[in-house]
Write a structure and sequence with these properties.
The protein has helices at residues 12-21, 41-51, 70-85, 104-121, 139-148, 167-177, 194-201, 242-254, and strands spanning 4-9, 25-28, 55-58, 90-93, 126-129, 153-156, 182-186, 205-208, 211-215, 236-240. With 255 residues, it is of the alpha/beta class. The protein has a single domain, classed as Copper homeostasis (CutC) domain (TIM Barrel). Helix 1 runs parallel beside helix 2 (41-51) and helix 3 runs parallel beside helix 4. The longest helix has 18 residues, at 104-121. The protein is globular, with a radius of gyration of 18 Å.
Length: 255
């Protein structure tokens, strides 16, 4: 079985680097520095037009937990349809109840909106449960719920800070999925640890950003005026490294 390489990107520059490096598909978001939020429709269109790769758009209205109020859920339903209409080939999202269960009641209309938009566009849709899965109470119950919802993929680190740390649970999840749903291994994945992860987990799908930190093109710099998260420089940019993705592709192609 061939291995799938999904690259998470939040800019067209990163998407093109991933494409050149040999990515099979993209997860597209905004604000990767805070774990990702919903990308703009303009970015979805631009990335589709410039790369031609399958694009799964993250649907996450804000930074923070995955327990959303009714206003946020209404936004997510509308955004799901809009992202697909803009060209997204899939939607990546997740919602939890306050007690940590996967919230099928909240998710069902969001995924249905994506399916309806895809049907209207005359193309298939891939529906992914994101790493809300990694902070849910019971991963095996959540896996069964995801299957019942007809989802394509679960993105997971095995409920650990990184996929290498979560490898034992990832192995159990792959076995439990038994071909019903794709287990996409992500968080801390690198070309160096891919061989061990593939062997330990039995997974055939891997997710990474391959990020590098680049210096800003700004020559004039007003220091000491932060615009975002404390501790992060305004003059550093996170972008996908084409070289890192090419190395990951090469590793997977030799397994």
């Amino acid at each position: 079985m061939p291995y799938t390489l999904e690259v998470c990107v939040d800019s067209t520059a990163s998407a093109l680097a991933a494409q050149r490096g040999g990515a099979d598909r993209l997860e597209l978001c905004a604000d990767l520095i805070v774990g990702g939020t919903t990308p703009s429709l303009a970015l979805v269109r631009q990335v589709k037009e410039t790369t031609g790769l399958p694009v799964r758009a993250l649907l996450r209205p804000r930074f923070g937990d995955f327990c959303y109020d009714r206003w946020e859920l209404a936004q997510m339903k509308k955004s799901a349809a809009a992202l697909v209409a803009a060209g997204a080939d899939g939607i990546v999202t997740g919602v939890l109840t306050p007690d940590g269960a996967l919230d099928a009641e909240a998710l069902r209309p969001i995924y249905e909106a994506a399916r309806e938009a895809a049907a209207k566009a005359g193309r298939p849709i891939a529906l992914t449960l994101h790493r809300a899965f990694d902070v849910c109470r019971d991963p095996f119950a959540a896996l069964d719920t995801a299957c019942a919802l007809g989802l394509s993929t679960i993105l997971t680190s095995g409920q650990a800070a990184s996929a290498p740390a979560g490898a034992p649970l990832l192995r159990q999840l792959v076995d439990c999925a038994a071909g019903r749903i794709e287990i996409l291994v992500g968080a801390g994945v690198s070309p160096a640890n891919l061989p061990a992860l593939a062997k330990q987990t039995g997974a055939h799908s891997f997710h990474l950003s391959g990020k590098q930190v680049l210096d800003s093109r700004m020559t004039f710099r007003r220091e000491g005026v932060p615009m975002g998260l404390p501790g992060f420089s305004e003059f550093e940019l996170w972008q996908t490294s084409e070289e890192t993705i090419r190395k990951a592709r090469g590793v997977l192609d030799t397994l």
